[in-house]
Amino acid sequence: MASIRILRVCGLLRNSTRNIPFINSDARNLFTTNPSYLLKTHMPLICNTRNSTFFVNKSADELWKGVTSVSNAGRRRGRAKGLARKRDLNRGQLIGVGKIPIQFPGLNTPVFRGKELLKQEKMAIDPERQEKLAKIRQSYQKSKRIKLSPLERGWTSVHLGGRKIGPPDPVGEDTFEGFETWALENKMVNCMSGNLGRKSRQSIFVVTGNGNGLAGFGLGKAPAMKTALKIAKNRAGQRLMYIPRYKEHTVLHDFFTQFGTTQLFIKKMHEGYGLVCHRAIAVCCKAIGIKDLHCKVEGSKNLQHIIKAFFIGLLQQKSYQKLADEKRLHLVELKPENGNYPVVIASPLQVRKPEEVPSHENLDLVHHVLNDRIPVQRKKYPPFYTKLPSWQTKLVKLERLRHFDETRLRLVAEYGALHSFLTEKYPEAKVRQSKSKSNKDEETEE
């Protein structure tokens, strides 16, 4: 019964091969002549396999692309700044050399050494192999950023604004000795072209100066940042302007300037005041050599408009001699730090007589340079605690000590001690010195 069943199976298989139209005649003859061949195990030379692991299914280039690529939209938004770079993970690894060194003739050693045929054998282990590999791979890593001092870092740690980029390039034999350039603005601008589509460029706005009244600004655009920096600072060097200063530390007088919707209110300040202004204006003051200034920016905060308005105001300043000639009066300076002692700083060729000066004429310099327009000062609101009952109680307690320090200084300045006009009449009201102080005075006299 078993043999009959085997013959039936062979017959079915033979008939099935005859009915298949796309099998060639050689294969059909092979199966029909020897049906037992179908019952034998067939071992193909190449096994058709399906990759089921992700790391085997993808090539190395595809895997690296997933790590080192970014979309075009993300690239426009700056996501490609800290992008990882493709690295050679086999750097420092030699073919045929592993943790256990083995000599393979024809792979890592020659086949013959003289007339001797080399054999495969184990070699001495190098204890410093792992350290050498680590050193080689560390040298391949990205170099660390140079740490800058806070004064050289600019306004922020990442962006270019506020950083020094060196003097402009020399023009022929003329060099810009003593000049320094600061980057004020760095941004990416786009424009549409007919053949390239959206075209991106770097736009850099800089200011250069020697710190002695000579300064200029420039704008450079280029696809590469280095090229844009070079164009901008060279243009700034070609547009230098001389800015007059008062005693080489501040502006000549207060002024108001405007560019577009940006308004600047500049105030002349005394020595030691410092630069209280916008950070871009502070950099321009360093380039010019201005050390004391107060500036209030109103309206648009467009950085290029702020710089242009500032330079327009500086160039429109009037010299003291010109102001004296306009009014035909002596220009006198009164400083609170000098006790308001009058100092004549400019005189006209022809001075008006007192009868020629009308009584209603405004002789204030600030009113004259601002064309009788005075900026509105914001009212200072009293602190919240002045409305509390405890504040009134404190005022009552301190009433007898009001102006104590000012009165003490004034009496010492006028009488040499804490005396008043009643001291001669009432000598018992004199302030008695302490014994320790009187003893010290006697020791110094001896």
TrEMBL record:
Query: Where is the protein situated, by its record's location annotation?
Result: Mitochondrion
A GO BP entry is: translation
Q: Name one GO molecular function term.
A: structural constituent of ribosome
Gene Ontology cellular-component terms listed: mitochondrial inner membrane; mitochondrial small ribosomal subunit
Q: What Gene3D superfamilies has UniProt attached to this entry?
A: 3.30.160.20, 3.30.230.10
Instruction: Report the principal subcellular site.
Output: mitochondrion
Claim: Mitochondrion is one of the keywords in the record: yes
Which residue ranges traverse the bilayer? none
InterPro entries for the chain: Ribosomal_Su5_D2-typ_SF, Ribosomal_uS5, Ribosomal_uS5_C, Ribosomal_uS5_N, Ribosomal_uS5m_N, Ribsml_uS5_D2-typ_fold_subgr
Q: Which PROSITE patterns match?
A: S5_DSRBD (PS50881)
Pfam families documented for this protein: Ribosomal_S5, Ribosomal_S5_C, Ribosomal_uS5m_N
Q: Which UniProt keywords apply?
A: Mitochondrion, Ribonucleoprotein, Ribosomal protein
SUPFAM superfamilies for the chain = dsRNA-binding domain-like, Ribosomal protein S5 domain 2-like
All copies of domain S5 DRBM, residue ranges: 197-243
Regarding protein family, the annotation reads: Belongs to the universal ribosomal protein uS5 family.
Q: How does it assemble?
A: Component of the mitochondrial ribosome small subunit (28S) which comprises a 12S rRNA and about 30 distinct proteins.
Q: What is this protein identified as?
A: Small ribosomal subunit protein uS5m
User: What lineage does UniProt assign to this protein's organism?
Assistant: Eukaryota, Metazoa, Ecdysozoa, Arthropoda, Hexapoda
